Amino acid sequence: MLRVLTVDDEVPALEELAYLLRRDSRIEHVSTASGGVAALQVMVQMIGAGERLDGVFLDIRMPGLDGLDLARLIAGFPNPPRLVFVTAHEDCAVRAFELEAVDYLLKPVRPDRLAEAVRRLECAAATTGEPDPDDVIPVELGGRTRFVAQQAVRFAKAKGDYVRLHTVDGNYLVRMSLAALERRWAGAGFIRVHRSTLVSTRHVSEMNFDGGRVTLRVGAETLPVSRRHTRRVREQLVRQTQDRPPPPGSPR
Question: Which pTM value belongs to this model?
Answer without folding.
Answer: 0.54
